Amino acid sequence: MFKILVVDDEEKIREVIREYGEFEGHGVWEAKDGMEAIDMCKEQDFDVIVMDIMMPKLDGFSAYKEIRKIKDIPVLMLSARGEEYDKLFGFEIGIDDYVVKPFSPKEVMARLNVIVSRHNKIHGNTDLNQRYKFEGLEIDMIGRNVFVDGVKVDMTPKEYDLLFYLVKNKNVALTRDKLLDEVWGFDFVGDDRTVDTHIKMLRSSIGIYRDFIVTLRGLGYKFEDIK
């Protein structure tokens, strides 16, 4: 059982997800807009968020960017549109999955189960509960903090997940498909460009230590401890 926050200005959408969520034994909370969702996340913890993009007061993308400043909660975005731009933008800011309306409630629940399972696997694995240092790059996996020459770096949730996975498998060649499977999930709807975009963002975030992330032409990437 896990706690789901459903954020949508359409009452029927909230009702449908609540019905299926409670049928599977999960707790379901509702918010009518992005502002209400932010306030609820400040007051309590949720395991996953289902959030519409187009809402009054504050759109879903903006609301999620505010939420991830205070808590690391995975999110599945709902949209009446299926434009590639919306999907890519969403994945760039750290969303976990994306479903276009109208949708199958059973599919949404299946995707939520995968998201929560993957999130727990990444953050509950004792192998990740360590602190690493590579020259001036410090990575605290327990606290989800990254420091560059002593200065804390703010990154998107997926940048953290990607960096942690690369470091956990340092000096191991990882294909783009492997990274998609392990960091985004086997049923992720994106493609190789998603990995490349996040690698570019990650390199920008760690600045002068970007060379630790090595491109393997035609294959993928690896975090190389060059000492």
TrEMBL record:
Annotation: DNA-binding region: 129-225
Entries under Pfam families matching the protein: Response_reg, Trans_reg_C
Residues where 4-aspartylphosphate is found: D52
Protein name: Response regulator transcription factor
Domain spans labelled Response regulatory: 3-116
UniProt cross-references to InterPro entries, sorted A to Z: OmpR/PhoB-type_DNA-bd (IPR001867), Sig_transdc_resp-reg_receiver (IPR001789), WalR-like (IPR039420)
The keyword DNA-binding belongs to this UniProt entry's keyword annotation: yes
UniProtKB keywords: DNA-binding, Phosphoprotein, Transcription, Transcription regulation, Two-component regulatory system
Domain OmpR/PhoB-type residue range list: 129-225
N-terminal signal peptide: none
Organismal lineage: Bacteria, Bacillati, Bacillota, Tissierellia, Tissierellales
